[in-house]
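Cross-check.
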Amino acid sequence: MNSPHTPTRARLCRLRAAAPLLFALCLCLAFTSVATAQRRREHLTPEEIELVRDNQVLDARTGVFIKAAERRLLAVTKPAEAAQNAAKEKEKWGEVKGTRAQLFYDISKILDEAVVNVDDVAVHDPASPLLRKSLFMLAQAAGRILPELSRLRAGVTEEAEADQLDRALETAQEIAEAARERGVNAEDLKAKAKAVKKDN
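Predicted model, tokenized:
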């Protein structure tokens, strides 16, 4: 007679059959927790968010996004130099923190937000002279960022890191392609915001 604490053969068979399902469930939960953590992460520091709010003019705001993205790239590629800059930038720009995968995520989201800002102005003020200027600024930044990301991609083996790096690469490539299609160039940097007429 079997003890109530001793698994029967049938119970053992059920446990063996359930093992692959339990393993798959654990994997799903692991991936879900990673994705949830990324969704909760803010890609800008509180100080950078304040700078974005303060800089309402498109080209100035675009410059904030570019600086924010390049700060994270520097933290990955040249951490010692980034650490030296951190003390000088902390009060105005905040502290850049995170794993490599998180910093790649930040770069992708920051560039994407910069593009969204340009698109928003294009909808509400299609004649703005700052549209081409801001796109050229982003294209220049993409030209600096893409070679570094491509070099890093060749050595990445961790799946989460590779996924976020691929997203950042894709966003930077889309910016470069949009700039080529619209033929923006250095002359566009001379553009200035339209003067706002004041009522008498």
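The chain has two domains: 8-40, 44-190. Residues 9-40 form the longest helix (32 residues). Passed to J.P. for a second look.
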